[in-house]
Amino acid sequence: MKIIDSAERADILARLGGFRTKYACGGSAANTLITLSELGTKAVLCGRAGDDSFGHIYLEKLAERRNLTAAIALENGDTGSSIVLITPDFERSMNTNLGICRNFSPEDIDEVLLKEARMLYFTGYMWDTENQKQAVLKALDICKSNDIRVAFDVADKLSVERYRDDFLTIIEQNCDYVFANRKEAAALFENTDPEACAAELAGLGCTAVVKLGDKGALVKEQKGDIISVPVQGFTRVVDTTGAGDTFAAGFLYGVSRKKNLETACSYASIAASAIIAKFGGQFTPEEIVSLKEKLD
């Protein structure tokens, strides 16, 4: 992933004029909440976008989704975007312009809607600016006062390296579920042993979920044993965009249906396997029906 400015974004889009282009609502948390809502769990997506063509495409696409409320503030400027290029080896390169996303602030938190929620979900990308960070801290305070559970995906190894102390404090004081892949967990605890990382993470008082790619995942509660869950539902790799986001959606869907941790992790693995077998980080309505059948 590379951060680009508006000029570089315009240049890339001009060079891609002859290629097939698809638009979808990003970023990471949006991928998770959209999939979760399509599976049947009511969700609210809170964010900020520009009052431009991309911003209006974003809102139009969100309106097509079931069980999803859009709490998106619009302002003059460029909507944040990521141009994702897929190469023949099935890997993706993300060219990200944060745009108006960086202006997300505490006043964008809808306190009434949040108090009605059973869980808050956010990612480590929210630490990119101080106002985004303060928005999350405000939301966490509301959750603590209203007994609302909190799920956190640390999201990115570089974010972990930059904000490690903040993340550890947030996890210990606020989080019920925490997601990290192998590299992110290693950066968080300065330890390359994923089982040791899972134990340390759970020791902070949360349910730890450490993703191991084609090796499956580890899940551990604070006082329980480490559960190793193998990859399930795997078919083929076409595009890895949104794999971790969809994993989180599958897991939280299992939690919302009061499944045990091993089953929730199996849901997560099946969902992630389904998303990497297609292009893009979200499912069509027809694909969601197929996914629900597999989970059920």
Question: Number of DSSP strands?
Answer: 11
Structural class: alpha/beta
How many helix segments? 11
Assess the beta-strand content as a share of residues. 15-25%
Largest sheet: 6 strands, mixed
H/E series: EHHEHEEEHEHEHEHHEEEHHH
Runs with pLDDT <50, length 5+? none
- What oligomerization state is this entry in? single chain
Q: Looking across the biggest beta sheet, what order are the strands in?
A: 6-7-8-9-10-11
Integer average pLDDT: 93
Radius of gyration: 18 Å
**Alpha-carbon distance between the termini?**
35 Å
From the spread of the alpha carbons, the general shape counts as globular
User: Level of helix content?
Assistant: 40-55%
Structure explained in plain terms:
The structure is a single chain. The chain has 296 residues and is an alpha/beta fold. 43% of the residues lie in helices and 19% in strands. It contains 11 helices and 11 strands. It has helices at 6-15, 28-38, 53-63, 111-115, 130-145, 157-174, 182-189, 194-202, 243-256, 261-275, 285-295; strands at 2-3, 43-50, 68-75, 81-86, 92-97, 119-123, 149-153, 177-181, 207-211, 217-220, 227-229. The strands form 3 sheets. A 6-stranded mixed beta sheet has the order 6-7-8-9-10-11, sandwiched between helices. A 3-stranded mixed beta sheet has the order 1-5-4, covered by helices on one side. Helix 6 (157-174) packs across helix 7 and helix 7 packs across helix 8.
